Backbone:
């Protein structure tokens, strides 16, 4: 199909929504503030009304920063933990001529906490980054003018199966 033969299923200014049947669609978008047109592939598995959800740039940038800073904080936590374990010593008891293990230094525990915070920041950051993009979402609206259509398999009176259809307006 050439671009001249393509029929748009929606042309929108501002908020955008459209009704579509299952299938694969090619979507061309030019959003406010975008210097050029962008495209994305849309695979619809369920008929219904789909709404365009624009990307939230602030949340996306925040997620990117958290996703990149988190590993650095985790690395610092690993260094703190290793330093605390290597600093572990013993208290020498002169009366018994024995050394009592004091365990790791407190910095090792702070390092483990820092490592956990960094891992949490990384995970949360990449999730926020991934979920704040331009996408289409199935609406709760019943569709154009409240219409719906269903086809189902029905049992027949003397055995066997048949097809039944229901169209509601």
Residues:
């Amino acid at each position: 199909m050439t671009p001249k033969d393509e029929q748009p299923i929606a042309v929108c200014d501002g908020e955008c929504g459209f009704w579509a049947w299952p299938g694969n669609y090619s979507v061309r978008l030019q959003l406010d503030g975008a210097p050029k047109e962008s495209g994305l592939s849309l695979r619809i598995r369920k008929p219904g009304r789909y709404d365009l959800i624009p990307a939230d740039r602030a949340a996306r940038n925040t997620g990117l920063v958290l996703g990149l800073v988190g590993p650095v904080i985790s690395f610092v936590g690993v260094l703190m933990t290793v330093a605390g374990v290597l600093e572990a010593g013993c208290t020498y008891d002169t009366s018994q001529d024995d050394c009592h293990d004091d365990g790791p230094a407190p910095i090792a525990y702070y390092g483990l906490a820092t490592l956990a915070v960094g891992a949490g920041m990384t995970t949360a950051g990449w999730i926020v980054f991934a979920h704040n993009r331009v996408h289409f979402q199935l609406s709760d609206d019943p569709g154009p003018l409240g219409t719906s259509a269903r086809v189902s398999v029905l049992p027949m009176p003397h055995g066997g199966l048949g097809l039944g259809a229901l169209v509601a307006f």
